[in-house]
């Protein structure tokens, strides 16, 4: 039996079906990268798993606990979010709290740790992401890359069973992308199970254990990075990868 699984996940906005009967098996320690064109439901998939969006159908099982994702009660949300943590594109830090306080917040309010225990855990995670020297800096005084590393530390401090990462580098200037990808790679090497939406194809090739190609709200193809990048089966995936190569070549020919 797999560590976690998604069964029959369907989401629509009005008449627009964004996700259609998504099924996925997740093994412990997997780093699963979701790739595909814009508007194909990649971010929506993550948001459904954290009940930020309510799907029309779907179940999510993790560590033998099954959640009906169509039930969006406060009790259900709180229980599910004990298993998952989300890292957003725009960092979503509390502006009025410094780095240390941002990481401590969930430990105090959700896990109900005392202040001393929360601070100890927060310090460990901030050191891991290379932010030990920025503990008392507020988001306004941190670069985008530093803010995202604080956001990752905040998520990891909660010890999630599944870490959801929604294009964590898309809001960053190019020179800051590397520091965040390095942080994610370290989290992966420490055995965290990660479901990641990203456009960083070199990172996907080198770090992901499995890649999903999403198109039109469906998983068109899935496999190892080698399968996906070197032996694509579907014509649509071949076209997508060709477009990625064209953009990459154009960027470096300027």
Report on the architecture of this protein:
By secondary structure, the chain is of the alpha/beta class. The protein folds into 2 domains: 1-83 and 163-223, 3-Layer(aba) Sandwich (Rossmann fold), CATH 3.40.50.300; 94-159, no CATH class. Helix content is 40%, strand content 24%. It is built from 9 helices and 10 strands. The chain has helices spanning 42-49, 74-80, 99-109, 115-128, 144-157, 174-189, 201-207, 225-230, 235-253; strands at 4-13, 16-26, 31-35, 57-62, 65-68, 84-87, 162-166, 194-197, 210-215, 218-223. α6 (174-189) links the parallel β7 (162-166) and β8 (194-197). α4 (115-128) packs across α5. The longest helix has 19 residues, at 235-253. It starts with a strand and ends with a helix.
How are the secondary structure elements laid out?
Elements: E1 4-13, E2 16-26, E3 31-35, H1 42-49, E4 57-62, E5 65-68, H2 74-80, E6 84-87, H3 99-109, H4 115-128, H5 144-157, E7 162-166, H6 174-189, E8 194-197, H7 201-207, E9 210-215, E10 218-223, H8 225-230, H9 235-253
Parallel strand pairs: 3-8, 3-9, 6-7, 7-8
Antiparallel strand pairs: 1-2, 1-4, 4-5, 9-10
Placed side by side, the strands forming the largest sheet appear as 6-7-8-3-9-10
Please bin the fraction of helical residues: 40-55%
What is the chain-wise order of helices and strands?
EEEHEEHEHHHEHEHEEHH
Major beta sheet, specifics? 6 strands, mixed
- The end-to-end distance, rounded to whole angstroms, is 50 Å
């Amino acid at each position: 039996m797999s560590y976690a699984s998604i069964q029959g996940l369907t989401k629509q906005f009005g008449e627009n079906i964004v996700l259609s009967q998504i099924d996925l098996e997740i093994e412990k320690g997997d780093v699963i990268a979701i790739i595909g064109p814009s508007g194909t439901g990649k971010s929506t998939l993550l948001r459904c798993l954290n009940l930020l969006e309510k799907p029309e159908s779907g179940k999510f099982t993790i560590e033998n606990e099954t959640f009906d994702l169509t039930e969006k009660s406060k009790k259900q949300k709180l229980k599910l979010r004990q298993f998952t943590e989300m890292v957003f594109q725009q960092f979503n830090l509390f502006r009025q709290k410094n780095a240390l306080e941002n990481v401590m917040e969930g430990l105090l309010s959700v896990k109900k740790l005392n202040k001393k225990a929360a601070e100890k855990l927060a310090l460990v995670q901030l050191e891991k992401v290379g932010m030990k020297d920025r503990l008392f800096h507020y988001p306004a005084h941190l670069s985008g890359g530093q803010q995202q590393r604080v956001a990752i530390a905040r998520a990891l401090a909660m010890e999630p069973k599944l870490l959801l990462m929604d294009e964590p580098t898309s809001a960053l200037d190019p020179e800051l992308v590397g520091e965040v990808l390095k942080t994610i790679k370290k989290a992966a090497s420490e055995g965290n199970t990660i479901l990641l939406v990203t456009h960083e194809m070199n990172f996907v090739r080198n770090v992901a254990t499995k890649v999903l190609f999403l198109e039109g709200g469906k998983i068109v193809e899935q496999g190892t990075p080698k399968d996906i990048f070197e032996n694509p089966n579907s014509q649509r995936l071949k076209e997508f990868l060709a477009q990625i190569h064209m953009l990459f070549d154009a960027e470096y020919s300027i």
